[in-house]
User: What shape does this take?
Amino acid sequence: MNRDATYEAPSNIAFVKYWGARDPDRAVPWNRSISMTLDRCRTRCTVEHVRSREAEQVLFRPAPGAPLAPAPGPFAARVTAHLDRLRRASGRDARLRVATENSFPAAAGLASSASGFAALTLAATAALGVHATPGELSSLARQSGSGSAARSVFGGYVEWPRDFGDESVSAHVLAPAEHWDLRDVIAVVDASPKPVSSRDGHLRATTSPYFDRRLDRIDRRVEAVRAAIAERSLERMGPVIEDEAIDLHLIAMSSAPPIFYWKPATLAVLEAVRRLRDDRTAAWATMDAGANVHVICDPASEDKVARALQRVPGVQSVLRDRVGPGPRAVAEPVR
Ligand code: PMV
Assistant: This one.
């Protein structure tokens, strides 16, 4: 039966990062990663069947309230390639129309590939009538080339093991969202697209002299973050996730050719976060492949952290998010 489907999937912020790929097209990582699934930063995606004479379309909403428009070429090509993969997996040759929108400003410079490809995978497999387990959906999402999408198929705290490209290995939940109410206060310091894609960053990572040194530390970091989640200990987790984020950028900056994601305001935010800690506020920073800073804190500190970040020169906006329960099917399609 041809059934149209709409899903919402959240973005996630990694505490131990996926950085460096054996195969970037299938997102085969060198190391395990752990993330927190967010709640408010979401992608909504509708996949509909089109009549045989109509052309397939990939549409997106460029800004809140704006009409749907054809997606930019490179993004549309990635979506079509992923649809082809899902069609092969389902053995169905349906012609599909995709419409997608983000709850967070597209120009905020925040990673939307995790939420985008998780939502697309869930909506397209539902539209194609694929009966897949959550683990299989996570593995399919990863094969889009966005590794972090494998984690956004789940809510709460999620680990993605080192899978050597084995498609039966998928991300899994370490703890549900209600286990630990953590907040993510995001300082947006650069809203433009990142200068080097994470795909190129993953490829270049192994050229850094620090790549192997970080891999040596990963197991200890994963154990520490897992234990901190189990104990709900921000004091235990914070230093580990901040070191880990700095290592990602150290590797990026020492790759050949080097990649500089940070802006001056990134450093100013990191300093503000250290000052918050000097003032006995448990707040710890992490950054993905970009200039923006995610500050992880308890609910009781969220207002103070947001006020402090707003005051930092160069911060364009502050977004507030929190750990969330993961994707869901929704009735209202993207129109
Ligand atoms: O999901 P990708 O392939 O765009 O890579 C994500 C890389 C980081 O966001 C920097 C780290 C992570 O684990 O999410």
